[in-house]
Amino acid sequence: MNTIKRIYLAGTVYKDEYDINWKKEFLTYLGHSERYYIIDPNPIRDHDPLNLKMINFDVIGYDKRAIDNSDIVVAYVNKSSFGTAMEILHAFNKHNISIYVINPNKKFRKDIWLNYHCSMMFHNIKDCADQINMIYENIIIYPAQ
Fold first, then answer.
1. 7-34, pLDDT tens digit by residue?
2. Residues facing residue 100 across a β-bridge
3. CATH assignment of the domain containing 58
4. Distance CA 43, CA 32 (A)
5. Phi/psi at 10 (nearest 5 deg)?
6. Exposure winner among 21, 23, 127, 136, fewest CB in 10 A?
């Protein structure tokens, strides 16, 4: 039985401090790093050596395949983003992926569309990581001694 949980980190590619640092903070709260395989699509999106700012539609296929192969999608929603919304919708349509939304500014806490399409919403990064840790701790099957 595979006990490693695959977690896809969805969020904007904006360069604001919050949007850059949330993943590092999330990983510090996530216990037992050997139990998780983290999928962070942003390094691929940021690769533009000539600074052409061209639209690369290959990214969408990569993201969808990565989401398809994930157990959990953690989406950081500090501001509206079509890309993040599409990642959430794609995961939701798979019916077997848990979707956790972190909304630190609470701006979207009453958004019916976002709430409908996520499993749980959190107002800080630590609470989301703690929830994943708690769920994971309860489903691990330890071998008989």
1. 999 987 666 666 668 888 999 999 877 8
2. 74, 120
3. 3.40.50.450
4. 23
5. -100, 145
6. 21
